[in-house]
Amino acid sequence: MTAAREPAAGPRLNPFVLPSSTTSRFLILIAATFAASLYLSTLHVELWWSVSGAPEHVRQAPCLSALRSGAASSDDPRHLVEQYAGCARTVMAGEGLLRIVPLLAPALLAVLLYAVHPVWARRRRPVPLAEAGTGAGHEALTRRLALVAAQELPGRRVRLVVDSARGGITGRTFGLPGRHVVALSMGLVMAHADRPAVAEAVLRHELAHIRNRDVGIAHFTVAIWWSFLLATCLPALVLTALWRPLGLVFLGVVIPVIALVLWLARTAVLRAREHHADVRAGDTPDRREGMAAAVETVADPPLRGPFRFFTSHPRAEDRRDALDEPGRLLRLNQWEMFAAGLLAGLGFVPVVAAVFFLDFEAPLEVRYHLPGLVLGFLVAGIVVVAVWRATGERLAGQGPKTRLWWAAVSFTAGLIAGQLPVTIRADVWIWTIVLNDPLLGLVHVLVVLLLFRALLGWARACCSAWLATSRRPRWITLVAVVVSALVIGPWLGMWFHGTSLIVQAGDSWSVLVLVLVAMARLVPELAAVTLACAFLVGAGIGRRSAPSREQSLHLDGAAPVPLRRPYSRLVRALLPTAVACALMVPAGFLLHPMLAGGQAPERLAVAAYALVGTGAALLALSGLVIGVMVGGRSRVWWGVAHAGLALPVACAPMLLLLYGHSAVARCGPQGAGRCFASGALDPPAFGNSYLHLVTYTLYAGLALAAVGGLLRRTSAGVPRTRGVGARRLLVAVVTVPAILTAAATGYTVLRNWLPTAGIGTPAPFVWLPQVVQAARRPVRPGSVAWLDACRYARGLFASPQVRDGVNADQRYYLLTAQMFTRVGASDDAALRAFAGAGLAWMAEGRADMAGRTVGRTLHYCILAGREHKIEL
Amino acid sequence: MAAESESGSIRRLDDVARAIVAEVAPKEAEYYSVIAAATRRNPRTAFRGGGDDLLGFSAADAVMLVTPIVLTVLTGAATNTLTQAVERTAKQVSTKVWNKLFPPRPAPIAAPATVVPVFEPAQAKETAQAVEDIALALGVDKTVALRLRQATYGHLSGER
């Protein structure tokens, strides 16, 4: 028995305001099981192809033979290449399904085990409490326990039964939602006479599991474990033993490691739910005493020290600590961060591989952003919610300082460690870079570290802003999870894509820069940044007369804490951007001589970039002013978020001004209207220019807004209301046009972007003269051996340069044209068909199809090489 | 060994067990019927918990049930299988890893109407000692275990 402890002074923190760590840990378990199952499934599909003597070129043989037989006679190479691509897609999609379908078995088994758990739990035939005994004493006991159940769960029916042969003061809860059963031990029933407080506390603890909605989580956790062992590990061992017995040595190492990770994830869920049930059952001073007495009876798990993480129940000491100081349950757990990173690292590559097989021609948005989004939900569900919980503790004025840098480091370390065993796709393996060039690898890792640090800082700012305004904190947390997934998902996906590019190109620093440029200018990434800013600013939009929200941040019957709400200052943030647009009017006239002389193709880019650069610089500088006006030293995020919304809005009128200057300078005052209309009124062209301007403006503007915030000394936190009435007319005058502008610009951007994501047909591309020239070079069929042509094609795109990321001079398409003309000269009819198709697409201005044909050509080259046992 | 007690009535297993339990743990005697029925259905659960502790409160066994102990030993005594019953039960409650992983089949509990003869003093003493040993192995308080031994001896030898 431990000596009685002095309860902590003051009300304890309420760990139930936001979703608990039980849910986060359950998410970890599900993700870990999914990643491990997909990993083992991928291993076995590869093993099957290896032992069955069916490498990829054999599986694709029907497609290759159809292509080759048609190449000699077909007049329409585009149709032939489309047929080949369709055939290859079908074959690969089937292979992708082979990896995914086996996952259904453990999933269905887990659901089945969960569904039948009440039957299993009743195997000892517990008897209803009322029928367990006779006499007045037992009737009084039955009434009392039923009263406790009604107090804890008013309006809900919970069956109380007794495990007749079970000693000890204990209980367990089981059952499907709405049909929960609490099984009390006979020891508890008998102990009620002598120690009613303890017995009732144990009952309250069991009922707290129902109140915390973790009964299903606990039984699903157990079901997931058994389904993984039975439906994933066992078949994996059996198939390996049958197909390649020596592989059992490898599995003998891998499966125990995976099982260990899953066991730790499982016990982490079960321990967390016990802590939360203890706190829920002891959430007032009186109940806390009873719960503390009950916890004193708890048997310590047999494992000690670090091995205690292998047990499903926490130590009595830990339970007492959590009961006395529930704020512990809210703090950032670095192991949780590490686990989330580990799963992201472990799971990304199998997901990418599965998506690749389902559609190997899928655009970048699908191939990398979709897996990124999947992992984004995992990261958001664990990491972001953890930051929200920790921020809640800080808002209540308790707890240690949140260590976001450490959390980011833990996550990143987990991410890199998680990649270690995933060698099934060496081209998306960070360790390839790390081992080839440690410094380059370190810088690439630093990129993801900074990304996550930024995410965590943003999440903390969002929490403090939204908790002060939200009526339903749990709901807004879930919304934050969705928004966070949309914010971090694309960036995470692109980071892995960057890994792939760097690996393929060799250890090149220029590729790293290219990756960063590419990350910055893609639509999903730009949209993610804007969304992040909008979500934060959105917390402050509302009537200034509305009172701040009070949140029940404490237990023990303490009064809710009023949190002072922030108010957005969008109108104020738009003012500097309006000034920047106004300054562009005279600045543009100064550039007219250069613009007028920019008719020659070689000077066109320089003139255009001078004009765009001036506009972007003015807007970026307005970001600095926004940072000073809206932000402040202690609320840098607030200023940055306002800049992140104001700048994309301001880019639309700025772009119209740039079009106007360009039109007047190039076509003169008389023809300016026609020139202006050809650019500004064409949605795809306008959307493309807008994206460029936003790219050049946004990141510089955000950085300058942060600098501006640091320049101004302010009181801590987001700005508070000053109790002044809103200038409604001014707000309406500014807001309505801003919203209309943003909507129109969004429409044109979508018109521009959707075709690149594979939706709809894009507008014809206008090639630069050097691209046209390269595409029209005369071709002498049969003059180049197929292997040389393929090696040329593979080598051409192997080392992309930084300017490919900017693509101002259409260098990618220049290389594309060169490749088609070279391949068109090969002695392989199929290769010539690819070249014919590619050049035909280029002649029609279909940049998207020309790009796809490049991919198809390279795919054919790889298969043709393997037919001759040459690895290209 | 006589089938009848001094008063001439035939003694049934449940009657003797209930009397012993009532003497040692009066509160438990109120629930004797359901505990005995559950023990007969699954004797292993009565001694080993049944594996549901994973999702339970995880309290220490502060309240030990004596009914399963009494029923097990009386069954052994009544059916002349006391040695086997004690051995099997000892393995049930053993903390050895092997016994935890591969516990032997528990000794079945005889039917309620099984006749319990009046034992010779030596035999009654041996049975009472077995009850005390199992109780102590299960973690029953020493005083309660001693009272259990005394009560068992008294009832089996016909003193009570």
Largest interface chains and counts: A-B, 48 and 30 residues
Shape designation of chain A:
flat
Order of helices and strands of chain B: HHHHHHHHH
Termini distance of chain A?
A: 71 Å
Shape of chain B: globular
How do the strands line up in the largest sheet of chain A?
1-2-4-3
Instruction: Look at the structure and give the mean pLDDT of chain B.
Output: 79
Question: How many β-strands of chain B, per DSSP?
Answer: 0
Mean pLDDT of chain A: 86
Number of strands of chain A: 6
Looking at the chains present, what oligomeric state does this protein adopt? Answer: heterodimer
| Beta-strand share of residues of chain A | under 5%
How many angstroms does the end-to-end distance of chain B come to? 16 Å
What portion of residues of chain B is helical? 55-70%
| Beta-strand residue fraction of chain B | under 5%
Descriptive key words:
heterodimer; A: 872 residues; mainly alpha; 4-stranded mixed β-sheet; two-stranded antiparallel sheet; flat; B: 160 residues; globular
What is shown here, in short?
The complex is a heterodimer of chains A (872) and B (160). Chain A is mainly alpha-helical and 872 residues long. Chain A has helices at residues 21-51, 56-59, 61-71, 77-100, 104-121, 136-152, 186-191, 196-211, 215-243, 247-281, 285-296, 316-324, 334-358, 364-395, 404-419, 430-436, 438-467, 473-505, 509-521, 523-538, 570-596, 601-630, 636-680, 683-711, 728-753, 769-775, 786-796, 802-806, 811-823, 829-843, 847-867; strands at 127-128, 159-163, 171-174, 181-185, 550-551, 561-562.
